[in-house]
Amino acid sequence: MQFGHFDDVRKEYVITTPKTPLPWINYLGSEDFFGLISNTAGGYAFYKDAKLLRITRYRYNNTPLDNGGRYYYIKDGETIWNPGWQPTQTELDEYTCRHGLGYTVITGKKNGLKAQMEAFVPVHDACEIHRITLTNESEAEKDVDLFSFIEFCLWNAQDDQTNFQRNFSTGEVEVIGSTIYHKTEYRERRNHFAVYSVNKEIEGFDTSRDAFIGQYNGFHDPEAVLEGKSRNSVAHGWAPIGSHHLKAQLAPGASESFVFVLGYCENPRDQKFVAPNVINKKPADELLAKYQTDAQVDAALDALHTYWENLLSTYSVKTADEKLNRLVNVWNQYQCMVTFNMSRSASYYESGMGRGMGFRDSCQDLLGFVHLIPERARERIIDIANTQFEDGSTYHQYQPLTKKGNADIGGGFNDDPLWLIAGTSAYIRETGDFSILDEPCAFDSDFSKAVPLMEHLRRSFGFTTKTRGPHNLPLIGRADWNDCLNLNCFSEEPGESFQTFGPSEGPVAESVFIAGMYVKYGNEYADLCEATGLTEEAADVRAKVAEMVDVIEDAGWDGEWFVRAYDAFSNPVGSKVCEEGQIFIEPQGMCVMAGVGLENGKAAQALKSVEERLDSKFGIVLLQPAYTKYHVELGEISSYPPGYKENAGIFCHNNPWIVCAETQLGHGDRAFEVFRKTCPVYLEEISEVHRTEPYVYCQMVAGKDAPTFGEGKNSWLTGTAAWTFTAISQYILGIQPTLSGLKVDPCIPASMDGFTLNRKYRGVEYKITVDNSAHAQKGVAEMYVNGNKIEGNVIPPVEGTTAEVKVIME
Ligand code: BGC
Ligand code: NOJ
């Protein structure tokens, strides 16, 4: 069953009922000001940091679901309704929600009145615009009341939800004309305030939630709206809100628009006030002046469209499969931008208060984003490196506002350091900008100790080189990529965090997955050494990598697949000798991607085992057989019911590793099959089963052991976005940035005749045509650049800013 459809021309997903299986959301903003908005206008906004500078309040896990947002109430006679159905839930005559690139348009119709809400964040401004357009489509004149409503958060989202004894007394606002200023804590240490304004004269306003809603009413029946009259309330403590009351008199056919701006403003500390406790409103005046007219809003929307057109023109493909085209050209890249911006901080499943920017997450998010805005990827790499410790180990996350590492969800995840090499290498392969390696980067944010980024990479590699266990495999520490494989934890008490309880280190527990990473990213590090003239170091790194390959093929090989790990007693995890959890997906993907066993058949055997033991209709599950009991020596992984999350769920993030691995073996048919299974656009028709948005990946789909097999969870913020974009763009379609240029090495289904692709790379726009009339799965027979046949399949430097590339597969 579908709840909408793709509009490929406008690059929108059009939702045709407000009652989607779960809220289907979109993200507004791409730089500093962000909003999450659902198809019923739920959600919240924040500036830079969802925990520390939350602008509007949101209650997670509420009932009914998705309660609270930007609500516009219309009172037309006795009927009160919202264009997005929530929260009044008045049945609409018509409803659509169009989620587009950085904007959302919700349109409702009731009793001959059409109300359209356009919501977006302008490209370089710190505000959300909501333009409400009312159109009288009836035969009679209409007199309608319009009420706006948002609920302010008292900035620190965590404190806001917990510290009521203080917070019920701190709220402060100012109201001048049509503008509401939220200034809680501004009198003391904050130098920022929020503003909520409309470009028309108002009938009244409210800033006290209790006055507007009434103590025992709800969002769905606020007293002020029921009575058609604002209270002009000024909040003192309790819950400050922003609400405007406007009137529209509409002749048949007439329209009127109202531009609301919800913004974030800052003042220099010494210019905060114009009078005792009266805000200096200069930054707000400047911001609001930009969005007073429809023409200004139209221009800002056009600028947003141009911004996205431009970004997406970096990579776009044309194949015979329109679903593939829409995923690659629009939605996957869009999600990569969102994951890059948010890491795992703010979604409908991440509260914005817990995890900040993940070290490993952000390094991986880069992989799918770096081609879009390389300068931002560069800055991010440096921010991440600045949090590393001197011995090469790392914090697991850092706070976006302060950019300082914190140990809130633990440290000592021993895969983290190597991901820094992955991100940096991707950046240089994209841009050719080796100067990043000379950038001074701090240790633990101490800039007096700054050393060039290259030294950070050296320490990343060096950390894994020396942090080894009895089989000479890397020690796993707290966990590796799989946060839930906690081999040193041994937690027996409910509520203990598996990520912070117990020692972060053990002398014995080892990870074959990290060993695979060491080979893959060790080689990428050696490439960087070679390219920068460090020949001896490169040779030394290659030798160490070769030793690790031997270790993997020995202690890391179980006979038919790669072992996952060794636990704190040196017993294997993910081996045929185990009762449960005999085979895991991660080492198969990572080791084969790293090239281990390609020559001696182990790689092929491992992938065959994956297909036989882990595959399912909806994707490859993380492990089999699922853990049915709690294993204290394994930790969180065995805490989930079978089929969910890391315990044999289809953890979408590592399915693309298998895709990449299959292409190493030239298996184009199988690579595409695996790619297709978790790909949301192909699941649109079964949205009632999949439940999450059909335009973005989710973190996890319930596995075959789960009662709800096929059900998606945790949409949007997942490394799946970056890795699938890497898999489809670089491994299947085969357009691979390398240090020496763009390589073309497709590995596609034999049935595919070929494709054409536009790729902007290092200042040149390449028009690439791949001809697969041979119906091969892999292999380039001939390649022509601007009509000239070239040797090999790496495009040599060209003159000018465009080039035609023709590739013939064999
Ligand atoms: C995992 C969760 C786990 C969490 C702990 C995540 O990476 O996916 O299952 O509960 O880490 O912080
Ligand atoms: C989600 C986390 O954000 C990521 O860092 C981790 O690798 C996966 N879960 C697997 O546990």
What's the arrangement of strands in the largest beta sheet? 1-2-9-10-11-12-19-16-15-14
> Describe the biggest sheet?
10 strands, antiparallel
Total number of beta strands = 42
Radius of gyration: 27 Å
What fraction, in percent, of the residue positions are helical? 25-40%
Shape: globular
Unreliable stretches covering 5 or more consecutive residues? none
Strand content: 25-35%
Task: Look at the helices and sheets and give the structural class.
Answer: alpha+beta
Question: What is the overall pLDDT average?
Answer: 98
Q: Could you please describe the fold and organization of this structure?
A:
By secondary structure, the chain is an alpha+beta fold. The chain contains 19 helices and 42 strands. Strands 1-2-9-10-11-12-19-16-15-14 form a ten-stranded antiparallel β-sheet. The longest helix has 21 residues. The two termini are 41 Å apart. It binds beta-D-glucopyranose (BGC) and 1-deoxynojirimycin (NOJ). Beta-D-glucopyranose binds next to loops.
Q: What is this structure's SSE topology?
A:
Elements: E1 4-7, E2 12-15, E3 25-28, E4 33-38, E5 43-47, E6 54-56, E7 71-76, E8 79-81, E9 94-99, E10 103-110, E11 113-120, E12 127-136, E13 142-155, H1 157-160, H2 164-167, E14 173-176, E15 179-182, E16 192-198, E17 204-208, H3 209-213, H4 223-227, E18 240-250, E19 255-266, E20 273-275, E21 278-279, H5 282-289, H6 294-312, E22 315-318, H7 322-342, E23 357-358, H8 359-369, H9 374-385, E24 395-398, E25 405-411, H10 416-431, E26 440-443, E27 446-452, H11 453-466, E28 510-511, H12 512-531, H13 535-554, E29 565-566, E30 572-573, E31 583-584, H14 585-593, H15 602-613, E32 623-624, E33 650-651, H16 655-664, H17 668-678, H18 687-690, E34 698-701, E35 712-715, H19 720-732, E36 735-738, E37 741-744, E38 754-761, E39 764-771, E40 780-785, E41 788-789, E42 802-809
Parallel strand pairs: 39-42
Antiparallel strand pairs: 1-2, 2-9, 3-4, 4-5, 6-13, 7-8, 7-13, 9-10, 10-11, 11-12, 12-19, 13-18, 14-15, 15-16, 16-19, 17-18, 20-21, 22-38, 23-24, 24-25, 26-27, 28-29, 29-30, 31-32, 33-34, 34-35, 36-37, 38-39, 40-41, 40-42
Helix pairs in contact: 7-8, 7-19, 8-9, 8-10, 8-19, 9-10, 10-11, 10-12, 11-12, 12-13, 12-14, 14-15, 14-16, 16-17, 16-19, 17-19
